[in-house]
Amino acid sequence: MKFMYKNYQKIRSDPFKLVLTVLQILISIWISGIGLFLFSDQHYFFWPPDWSNIENDIRIDTFIVLVGLVLFLCTIFGVKNRKVIATLLVCCGAISLSMATLSLLHVIMSNYWVMGLNVIGELILFSLVLLVAHYL
Are the C-beta atoms of 102 and 115 separated by less than 8 Å? Predict the structure, then answer.
């Protein structure tokens, strides 16, 4: 507990580091939320029909949730290993970009325009991941 308080004081004293930490927490919660949503809705992806079993796989959803949770825990506990954080951010970027691509394919190929907002949100998430990874 003392280590967490010391880490908190260090982050709080530097406004730039504080903003990056808050963004990293936001990214981790956003990724975990995506995974939990996909975990709860096993029929979210429907196009192309041949790939819907792969796209709606529980193992992929579990991986997404775990990436978000591990990034959250690493942020909270102040893990200093840059390779671990960079790997998790790469996974978050891959998840957000693949979700944006799949949602865009649903919009274009099946005219399901509701997923168009998901594309915008996922691209914003990808931009935040790029921003945090750049200043890591």
Answer: no
C-alpha–C-alpha distance, residues 37 and 116, integer Å: 17
Task: Pick left, alpha or beta for residue 110 (phi over 0 → left; psi -120 to 50 → alpha; otherwise beta).
Answer: alpha
Residue 3 has pLDDT above 70, yes or no: no
d(C-alpha 39, C-alpha 93), whole Å? 19
**The token pair that represents 39 in the structure block:** 């975990």
- Is the CB of residue 62 less than 8 Å from the CB of residue 99? no
C-beta neighbour count of 53 within 10 angstroms? 10
C-beta atoms surrounding 28 within 10 Å: 23
CA dihedral 116, 118, 119, 123 (to 10 degrees): 150
Residue identified by tokens 């029929």 is 43
Strand, helix or coil for residue 135: coil
pLDDT in tens, 7-40: 777 777 888 888 999 999 999 999 999 999 988 8
Q: Alpha helix locations (H) across the chain? A: 2-13, 15-40, 52-55, 58-76, 82-110, 116-134
